[in-house]
Amino acid sequence: MSHCLSIGAAHHQEFLKDSLGKELRALKNQGLDVRMEESPVGSLTFLACSVSGSEQLEPVFKRQIASVIADLITSKWKDKLLKDIIRNNYYYFDEEEKVTIYDYAQKKLNHNEKSREKNRLWILRRLTEYLNFNCNLVIDGFVRFRLKEYVNDLYDVADQAVDDFLSEREYQEFIQLLRYFVNIQDPRAELVNVVLRPSGVFQLYDEIGRVINSDYLKDFMVELAESEINYEDLLISALITIAPRKITVHMGDGNFPASTLDTICQVFAERVTKCQGCSLCRQQ
Q1: Is residue 70 within 8 Å of 55, Cβ to Cβ?
Q2: Residue 92 DSSP one-character state
Q3: Which InterPro entries does the entry link to (predicted)?
Q4: Over the range 229-265, which residues count as b (16 or more CB within 10 Å of their CB) and which as e?
Q5: Percentages helix, strand, coil for the chain, rounded to the nearest 5?
């Protein structure tokens, strides 16, 4: 008995053809008669896949075809959908910004392997259900009309990516402003050593290891003591107030917050060095 499925696609036809060909060759190696014929129809390319064998072969054949299409949708088609969503919904960003937003979206999707596999299995189930009752499938239409939940998830990911992009842009603008403040000030210290105490509080020391506790810094701390600003913000603000020529960050046991270190390095750039071990590090 012969079983035939016709798969139509407007994009990634070669990828689809190669993937289906591999599956059919695997069946051919088992001694089955398999064929694939290509037919262009307008902007679509149809691939008619057929295999001859017993009645028991049909579910396996359909499942393998569905698996190929599921892989195609969650890889190549996903990328196209994301780009279309970003281009159509966020047209007011320039091309470079859209590329960055797309990269943010891809990182979100690729970060969660469990969620990615869950989406693939869900799509595979929908495809298998469809092919159990239909011998013709156009991937573009199937995605648009039968995978709306998946497409809506991509819209949500794109929205989150835009939020991340805007937050990062605001952060970089803020960093540039802080660098400007640092550069226009006269340094109040030659060197500041930054140490993270076990209590989670940052302590500043001068070049000979004395705690920095000058009047201007006292006044600064009193002014901010009752605000909602956290210790990391206080540290950055204190360093900007002092504007030292050099800053040594003592890494200690490695618990120094990476985000704080990154901000210090971005604001003070070449003024910053990292110490991996000294007497101040051991005090942590």
Answers
A1: no
A2: T
A3: Spore_YtxC (IPR014199)
A4: eeebebbbbbbbbbbbebbbbbbbeeebeeebbebbb
A5: 60, 15, 25
**Cα dihedral sign, 40-45-48-49:** positive
Using the structure block, give the residue that is written with the tokens 């359909």. Answer: 62
**Mean pLDDT along residues 75-85:** 94
pLDDT in tens, 231-260: 677 788 889 989 999 999 988 777 788 889
β-pair partners for 250: 275
Of the candidates 57, 64, 55, 62, the one whose C-alpha atom is nearest the C-alpha of residue 23 is: 64
The reported pTM is 0.78
Q: How many CB atoms lie within 10 A of CB 121?
A: 12
pLDDT digits (tens, 9 = 90+) for 192-219: 999 887 777 788 888 888 888 655 455 5
Mapping DSSP to helix (H, G, I), strand (E, B) and coil, where does residue 27 land?
A: helix
Q: Provide the residue ranges of all domains of the chain, joining segments of one domain with +.
A: 2-177, 191-282
Q: Are 272 and 247 in contact (CB under 8 A)?
A: yes
CATH class name, domain 191-282: alpha beta
Structure tokens at 129: 């259900």
- What is the torsional sign of CA 120, 123, 124, 125? positive
Cα–Cα distance list, 108 to 31, 103, 171 (Å): 43, 9, 19
Q: Position of tokens 């000030």?
A: 185
Assess contact for 152 and 207: CB atoms under 8 A: no
- In whole numbers, what is the pLDDT of the chain averaged over residues? 86
